[in-house]
Amino acid sequence: MTTVVAGSSLLTDLLSGPRPAEWASLREAAELRLAGRELPTTRDEDWKYTDLKALAQISFKPAPEATVDVSSHLLPEMVGTRQVFVNGRHASHASCASAVPAGVRYFPMSHASEACHALGSVGNGAAKGLFEDLNTARFEDGAVILVPRNLKVALPLHLLFITKAEAAAVFPRLLVVLERGAELELVEEHLGEGAYLCCPVVEVRVAEGAILRHERVQRESPEAFHIGTLHAEVARGGQYHSRTLSFGARFSRQEPHVRLAEGAEATLDGLALLDGAQVADTHSFLHHAEPGASSHQLHKCIVDGKARAIFNGQILVAPHAQGTDARQQSRNLLLSDAARVDTKPQLEIYADDVKCSHGAAVGQLDPEERFYLQSRGLNADDARNLLTYGFAADVLTHVPVASLRRALRHLVMARTQAGSLGDLS
Predict the structure, then answer these.
(1) How far apart are CA 248 and CA 237, in angstroms?
(2) Does pTM top 0.90 for this prediction?
(3) 3-state DSSP call for residue 130?
(4) How would you class 82 by CB atoms within 10 Å of its CB: exposed for 0-12, middle for 13-18, buried for 19 or more?
(5) Cα–Cα distance between 44 and 46 in angstroms, integer?
(6) Distances in Å between the alpha carbon of 175 and those of 143, 284, 380, 404, 416?
(7) Rounded to the nearest 10 degrees, how much is the dihedral formed by the CA atoms of 26, 30, 31, 32?
(8) pLDDT one-digit tens code per residue, 10-64
(9) Which uninterrupted H or E stretch holds 344?
(10) Which of 87, 211, 339, 356 could form a disulfide bond with 239, CB atoms 3.0-4.6 angstroms apart?
């Protein structure tokens, strides 16, 4: 392995951890890219609204081994399809894959020599971010899901990544490969206790005619930092539908990158619910590389207190990607005078036969709607809370797993103090 001289004490701390032997060439390439690099600052265009000084002030160390009680986090539909990881390592005592159908390969990455050929190859042409390279250099474990040709998995799979540590860094990894005509629903959850850094990397490959529905739920500790990267490649006629729901973390950033081949389809939706001094940053990139693909993106933020939300969504339509249909919306709700949203939807189009649109809106609750609800008997607080919940509800309505949908709705109601309005699920 190459010795890396990092450009900041934070990177030095993070790179002082163990160097697992698996995928040595992949790790060495990541360390070479890290050589001499420093943390991004607000002088960098992609980080101009995001200050990482608070992150740099913490001396992170490798996460210790730990055990947790996962009973309160289990979902009834997925009792027999779960893999649990605690502090970045597989927790076999808490995992159960008894209901996973024969033919599906679903196992910890630490046992995944057969996945060597695919790991690190998704999004291979894209520039690697610093935190993605940190994951590649230092991840210890993660999950591999391989679904064979034409197999439609009836039950959703549940991946639970739990961190319980102080001043520690974890680097979970996920590789999902769907062969031609396969179908899968996947729930990926991140949660924890303490002040820690979680840097997950997800690689998705959807083959011709395959369909992946991917729910991503970030419920990290209020003191945590969460910086995640996703690369997805969708082959001809394939479909990738992703929904990212961000509720936790002191600071969170999501960087999804999706490449669409001919006739492929992608949905890339998101909801961030922030209060206090939370910061949630989303930088997405949708690449229409070939003709006839479609993408739909709706990103919503509800921002209260002194919290801040950032959205930068880029859609690139290649010169020969005729017949592209790309639609992007950023909608944001401010609940306090101190809350802030920076939104920047972008279209970069090099083809002339396309249907592309984007838009952004930032506003407060409509006083006429509040007055209407109060005229029907609700007090001022309940009217505010109901309208806030309604703003988020259309994103949650399409979550396919019923128990997860109910849990997320109750979480939103609790955060908007809408519990007094009864069960809205």
Answers:
(1) 35
(2) yes
(3) helix
(4) buried
(5) 6
(6) 6, 19, 48, 22, 35
(7) 100
(8) 666 666 666 666 778 888 889 899 988 889 999 999 999 999 999 988 889 989 9
(9) strand 340-349
(10) 211
